[in-house]
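In this section we walk through a basic example: taking a raw amino acid sequence and producing a predicted 3D structure, encoded as discrete structure tokens. The instruction is simple. Fold the sequence below.
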Amino acid sequence: MCLFLAIEGWVIFVRNIHTEAHEDDVHELFAEYGDIKNINLNLERRTGYVKGYALIEYHSKDDAQKAIEEMHEKDFRDQQLSVDWAFVDGPIHNSYTNLVPSVAYEHSRKQNSGNRGKRGDYLGRRKRSPSPQGRNKR
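The resulting token sequence is shown next.
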């Protein structure tokens, strides 16, 4: 498993947080395992309740790992928490992103060949209309 460091710390993802929990409750619960740098506890706009998950950023990997090991499947307000790393895989790479721009463009044109317009143009682009001189030969 490959772990990635966030911009400044190690981030864990906590699921199944009770909707009536407060940020202070979550901070107090997870501060036992190390110095917390940041907590994101998102709220529903309509109700104002917690959405049920949190992102917690620790300064060190050891503190984050300790929090995962100790808090995973623990009860908090009558709900069992699920705690794991927030980022475990690298960014998604397309097969042609590292190619020369012209090669990447040609590759994307081939991929979009199903999006042809009536006259066979790629991406539904329309050809220029014929000039009036071409139609009216004298």
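Looking at the output, two observations stand out. DSSP finds four helices and six strands in the chain. Residues 131 and 137 are 11 Å apart (CA to CA). In the next section we compare this with other chains.
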